[in-house]
Amino acid sequence: MRPDLDIVAGLVGSGQRVLDLGCGDGALLENLINEWDCSGLGVERELDDFHACIARGVPVTQGDLEDELPRFAAGDFDVAVLSLTLQAVRRPDRVLTEMKRVAPRLVVSLPNFAHWKLRATLALRGRMPVTDSLPHQWFDTPNIHLCTIGDFEDLARELGLKIDRRILIDASGHRTRGLASRAPNLLAERAVYSLMA
Fold first, then answer.
1. In Å, what is the CA distance from 182 to each residue of 3, 172, 176, 191?
2. Ranges of each domain in the chain
3. In this predicted structure, what is the pLDDT of residue 39?
C-alpha cells in the first residue's frame, strides 16, 4: 500500500462505514476492512482496477464516481474518502458536496500544483512539469483541475467544510517536517485532509 494511504487509513480510524471513491486497486479499502475493522464500498471507473478489487475481495461498484455518488442516500457512510482523485473529476465542488451529503466526515488527499518544483519547471523551462508525484505529460494527464493547497482550503470553506486536520506529505507519501508547515502552498507536494461536514 502507498505510504500516503497509511496516513489516510489513520484519519479514517477503526470501525467506520467507508465509501472509497476512485478506490484504484482496493488496497486502502482492503486495509481498512482487515486491519481497522471497517466496512465499506469502493467506486472505481477503470476496469483493471475494478477487477483487482474483486480479486482482493473488496466490495466495489464499477462506474464514474460523479455518476455513482448521487445514488447513495444521505448518511449512508461514516467517512467518504477521495485519495489523489479530486483533480481528475469534472466538478470538484459537486463531488465534495455529494461526499458531505453521504458522510459527515471526509478524508481527501490531493497533489499541490503550487509546489516550488512545479513552479520552477514552468518558469525556467516553459514546459508543463513532469515529476515523481505528477508523472504524466500534459497531453495524457488525468488531471483536469489543477489546484493548490490554498485553492482547496478556500473551496472547503465555501462549501461549509471544517478542516479538522491537515497532514502535509512529500512525493513519496511520507509526512513532511520543518519548513513545509510554515509555507505549505510552496513546500508541500501533497496534502491529506480530514474534513467535517
1. 23, 20, 11, 14
2. 3-196
3. 98
CA distance 70 to 91: 13
Predicted pLDDT at 160 = 98
How far are the Cα atoms of 7, 19, 181, 185, 195 from residue 102, in angstroms, in the given order? Answer: 22, 9, 31, 29, 13
For the chain, list residues with pLDDT below 70.
none
Check residue 142 and give left, alpha or beta (phi > 0: left; psi -120 to 50: alpha): alpha
Kindly report the pTM of this predicted structure.
0.92
Q: What is residue 139's predicted lDDT score, i.e. its pLDDT?
A: 87
How is residue 151 written as a grid cell?
A: 485553492
What fold is seen in the domain 3-196? Answer: Rossmann fold (3.40.50)
pLDDT at residue number 124 = 85
List the 190-196 sheet strands across, edge first: 60-62, 39-44, 17-21, 79-83, 105-111, 190-196, 162-169
Residue 16 to residue 36: CA distance in whole angstroms = 8
Place of cell 482487515: 34
Q: Which position has the grid cell 495524457? A: 140
Least Cα distance to 162 among 116, 104, 79 occurs for: 104
Helix, strand, or coil here: 32? helix
